[in-house]
Structures are given as C-alpha cells and as structure tokens.
Amino acid sequence: MNAEKAFGSKWFDLCAEAGIAPEGWQAEVASRRDDRQRTRIVWRLTRGDARLAVKEVRAPRDPDAFLADITAQMEAASRFDGFPELLAVDAEAQICVMRWAEGETLFDALSRPDADHAALLALAGGWIAGLHGAGIDARRNFQPKYSVRHLRRLAHEMETGARPAPPRARDWQQAAARLADMAADFEGRETVSTLGHGDLNLRNLMICGTQVTGLDPRPVTPVPVGHDIARFAVHYGALLAPPDATGRILPGVDLSGLFAGYDVVGVDEPSIGFLCRMRVLIDWQTLPPEPRQTGPERRRFAGLLRLAHAAFETPK
User: Fold this and answer.
1) Which residues pair with 212 in a beta bridge?
2) How far is residue 36's CA from residue 174's CA, in Å, rounded to a whole number?
C-alpha cells in the first residue's frame, strides 16, 4: 500500500515537517498491539533503499499523553545516542515519523530455540548502562519503606473492595508480607538514581548484530537504577528465562549475562534486589481473574507464579 493511501492527507503534512518528498513510499504493517490498554500500529515505509517508521496510536485518545511520550523520546535521545531520530509529529492525530530501527526485538531474539541468552543479555546490559550512565542524578540511600507503604495500601484496597483482587489473592498477600519483612535488609544502603527508560521491557529494545536501539521511553524523573532493571528482569524471567534457572539478584532468573554488560552498579546494589521482587508483585496485581485472562496473560501469570515461588516461597 502506498503511504498516501495508508495515512491520507496527514502524510503530506508529516513529510513537509520531516523535509522529505512524499511520493513513492510503500507502507506495510511491521507490528501491531491491540489489547486492553492500547491499540498501536508501527508501519515500515520503504522507498528504494530508504526506510522510515511511522507509529500510530489509535487508542486511547489522549494527545497530551502522546506528546508527553514524544517529548520523553526526544529528551532521552538528547542524553544518549541510542534511540531512533524523530522526524515529524502530529500529536492531535497521535502519529509520528522516525528513522527505521533495523533488527528484531530482544524478545524475538531471545525466543529463538538457539538463542544465546547470556550474549544477548550482555548486549542489552551495555545499552542500559549507556542510558543510565548518561542520566545519573545522584548517589543516595535506598529507602524501600515507600514501596512497602504502597504494597500495604494496595493490600488494604483489595481487602476493602476498593481495588479488584488479583488472581490467587491470598498468595499475593502472603508474598507482599514477606517482601515487607525483607525491606530491612535493603534499607539505607547506597543506590544510584538516574534518568532511565521508564518502560524497559524486552520489546522496547531492538537488536541488529551487536547494535542495540531503544524504543518508546516514557516520561521519567530521577529514580534508583533498579526500576529499569526490575522491569526488564521480571519481563524476561516470567516469559523467557529457562525454567530451571537460578539467580542471585532475582531468584529463578539468571541475570549474570546482563551484568556482563551493565557496569553502572554491581549485582549487590540494593534497589535492584528489592525492586525486582517488588515488580513481581506489581505485575501480578494488574492481571485479571484467571477465567478472564487471555492466552498471553495466562502465560505471564504462570511465569510470575514461578518467580513468586522462588522469591517468596508461595505455592506454585
């Protein structure tokens, strides 16, 4: 399909902003997300050897949030040269044009039967280190008490009916209580805060040989490095980590490959150990009851239960 047909008159305005000729571009869908939270299409555009990406967010309709995400990408790219260049934006239409990022997502690369997990994780770790190193804000004492308060508030809201209970709610409550008991082991130790990614899941990193490109950073403020690492580690651990894996940072997940590339802090950094466990609980409590879960949600829930059993000794 040609780009004019795919995007209508918006295409000409976007090309004018990007400084490119609108004629001759062919568009095909590269990826699509359509779930409870979002409907999003990424198009691959080609003209000869040239390639562009066009991202459309069709739902929810929130131009201000779309523009905030675009601003976040521009700010992240100004700190760290690891994101595709943005060329044109129409916030009202929730569409943007950027350079095409070659390769495949880290999720797809790790999903291959012959994938070298350690090598791929090391590549990702190097990229994350570059992003975190460029955004370092300060060294400070880690305070898990704020996360513990959040967990207790969630638990109270579940008990009173103000918030829907997660699947296997009793096991979730048990795991949350155990994490609260662990907090003293992490309290007051030095952490590093940085401007990170904000949604560092395996589908937001592209791998092409040894080159890594980041996608879709979110608006961020300085937070401990463990926030990004935890998002990454739990996504990997729940869906792709070998089921017999063991780990020092997050039980049930071998992250030694990641830390072969990541050198901003070491494996004993307190925010990483605590927030990885916290992330298991946060991801768990967002899932709907088991009868309403989609196939991907059931797979994710099974992986989270495995991680919770390893970290908190909850039932499998």
Assistant:
1) 207
2) 28
Catalogue the E-assigned strands of 16-150: 26-34, 39-47, 50-59, 86-90, 95-99, 104-105, 136-141
Give me the pLDDT at residue 174, please: 97
Burial 275-301 (b: 16+ CB within 10 A, else e): bbbbbbbbbbbebeeeeeeeeebeebb
Task: In whole angstroms, give the CA distance from residue 111 to residue 203.
Answer: 11
30/140 Cα distance (integer angstroms): 42
Question: What global pTM score does this model have?
Answer: 0.96
Return all residues near 133 (Cβ < 8 A) that are at least 6 apart: 194, 264
Q: Where do we find the tokens 């070491």?
A: 266
Does domain 105-312 correspond to CATH entry 3.90.1200.10? yes
Per residue in 262-315, pLDDT (tens digit) is 999 999 999 999 999 999 999 999 999 999 999 999 999 999 999 999 999 999
Tokens of 300: 């994710």
**CATH for the 3-100 domain, from 3.30.43.10, 3.30.2280.10, 3.30.200.20, 3.30.565.40:** 3.30.200.20
> How is the chain split into domains, by residue range?
3-100, 105-312
Alpha helices in 97-144 (DSSP H): 106-111, 117-134
CA dihedral of residues 15, 20, 23, 27 (deg, nearest 10): -70
The token pair that represents 128 in the structure block: 């994350």
Contact yes or no for 230/278 (Cβ under 8 A): yes
Outline where DSSP puts E strands in 195-315: 205-208, 211-214, 223-224
Distances in whole angstroms, Cα of residue 31 to Cα of each of 88, 117, 217, 261: 20, 23, 17, 28
Question: From residue 289, how far is each of 86, 169, 316 by CA, in Å?
Answer: 39, 10, 17
Structure tokens at 228: 């990004």
Q: What are phi and psi of 232, to 5 degrees?
A: -65, -50
How buried is residue 144: exposed, middle or buried, by Cβ count under 10 Å (0-12/13-18/19+)? Answer: buried
